[in-house]
């Protein structure tokens, strides 16, 4: 292996403990490792006040720009679970992609990542927040960040749009009921 390759830095993705993204970012920077945890600003409303809070754009992921020599050092940082792999090697992110994320966060303040791969039409879900909190329902359609749902336990079919982040998949209860029949 060439000496140049040992010192050449590239962006890699690390997986962190849940809700440790900003803490890991800070710890890595204290150790002199270049890291980037993209965050978005959200205004939270409490009963007595409003406050702007920063949330990681990517849950449980932080980007690090390291050389081959520094790769092992990252793994010893508290809160780091490991590297994200692609084809049996740490996933490399091009510099342009990191710059584009930074640019988009600056231009679009309401930028947010929503992972819809875990939910599909027909899933049984439970509403976490809002007017229908704690009510189960079934996903009829996915429309951008909203889920079109049917609530069948109120003796009529009520259809409403619920923001995706306000629901939890509840298919286990349905599978358990089918298993006991």
Strand content: 35-45%
CATH domain class of the largest domain? Alpha Beta
Share of residues in helices = 25-40%
Question: What is the string of helix and strand elements?
Answer: HEHEEEEHEEEEHEEEEEH
Q: Rg, please? A: 21 Å
> What composes the largest sheet?
5 strands, antiparallel
The global form is: elongated
What is the averaged pLDDT score? Answer: 80
Number of domains: 2
Number of helices: 5
Uncertain regions: pLDDT < 50 for 5+ in a row?
Answer: 172-181
Fourth-level CATH superfamily of the largest domain: NusG, N-terminal domain
Reported CATH architecture of the largest domain: 2-Layer Sandwich
Derived from helix and strand composition plus strand pairing, the structural class reads: alpha+beta
Counted beta strands: 14
Amino-to-carboxy terminus distance: 62 Å
CATH topology of the largest domain: Alpha-Beta Plaits
How would you describe the overall organization of this protein?
This protein is 25% helix and 37% strand. The protein is an alpha+beta fold and 181 residues long. It has two domains: 3-107, NusG, N-terminal domain (Alpha-Beta Plaits, 2-Layer Sandwich), CATH 3.30.70.940; 124-180, SH3 type barrels (Roll), CATH 2.30.30. Strands 1, 2, 5, 6 and 9 form a five-stranded antiparallel sheet that branches. A five-stranded antiparallel sheet has the order 13-12-11-10-14. Strands 3-4 form a two-stranded antiparallel ribbon. The longest helix has 13 residues, at 95-107. It is elongated, with a radius of gyration of 21 Å. 14% of the residues are buried. Residues 172-181 have low confidence and may be disordered.
């Amino acid at each position: 292996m060439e000496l140049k390759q040992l010192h050449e830095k590239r962006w890699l993705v690390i997986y962190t403990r849940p809700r440790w993204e900003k803490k890991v970012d800070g710890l890595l920077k204290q150790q002199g490792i270049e890291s980037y945890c993209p965050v978005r600003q959200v205004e939270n409303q409490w009963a007595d006040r409003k406050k702007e809070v920063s949330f990681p754009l990517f849950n449980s992921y932080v980007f690090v720009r390291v050389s081959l020599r520094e790769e092992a050092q990252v793994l010893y940082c508290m809160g780091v679970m490991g590297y994200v792999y692609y084809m049996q090697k740490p996933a490399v992110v091009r510099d342009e992609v990191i710059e584009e994320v930074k640019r988009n966060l600056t231009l679009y303040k309401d930028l947010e990542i929503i992972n819809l791969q875990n939910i599909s039409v027909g899933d049984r879900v439970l509403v976490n927040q809002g007017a229908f909190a704690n009510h189960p329902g079934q996903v009829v359609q996915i429309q951008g960040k909203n889920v079109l749902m049917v609530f069948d336990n109120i003796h009529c079919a009520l259809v409403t749009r619920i923001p995706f982040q306000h629901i939890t998949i509840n298919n286990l209860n349905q599978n358990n009921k089918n298993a006991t029949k």
